[in-house]
Amino acid sequence: MGNKLITKRAADIEAEDVLAWLDTEPREDETLEFKADLPTKKGGRSPWNQGNADIEEYAKREIVAEVIAFANAFGGTLVVGIQEDAARRDIAVGTQPVRSCVELAKRFRSICKDLIEPVIPALEIFGVELEEDGSGVLVFRVPRSRSAPHRSTATKECYIRRSERSDRMTMREIQDLTLQVERGLVSIEKLFEERSAEFATYIEEAIGNQTYG
What we know:
Layout (H helix, E strand, L loop, with lengths): L3 H4 L7 H9 L8 E4 L21 H15 L4 E5 L1 E3 L7 E4 L5 H15 E2 L6 E6 L6 E7 L8 E2 L6 E4 L2 E4 L2 H42 L1
Parallel strand pairs: 1-2
Antiparallel strand pairs: 2-7, 3-4, 5-8, 6-7, 9-10
Helix pairs in contact: 3-4
């Protein structure tokens, strides 16, 4: 029950799923990050949560960097609108709903499409309303990408997840990741060819058995 925020079909997730997930006392790690609000350069409440119609450029860059970091590593989930433990900031203890979370998710789908290259396949961004006024949590479910390395068009940087942090990648890391992805794709193509050959042989044998049976 508690991990449905991570695994359940996005369109079916409800407020109860978020609360059940929080009951498990989730902790940040290589595949999970949560924030109380959109990042701001000076700290404090984000302009979005204060009623501003626009999203700060700083918030766009920081969120995009987190998404890219997951895609370039093992994939993961970013949840905005989650209150952290005061003493242990890597543990979620409650919600801190962000304004108009569904509309915010729509905005970030467009932002990620514009600011991430190449586009991350199967990236999910959605809002889960917790209050009657439409506030709730903003969820980014990021797959491990076979199109990596990805970079931000705003900063021209590639990012990767290291434990509980998202860091800039070094040139050596970018080169190594590119080679890993290429080798992985070659392996997938080879497996597909082998399976196709096996299937063709099976069909030929099946037809032959019917002919001479």
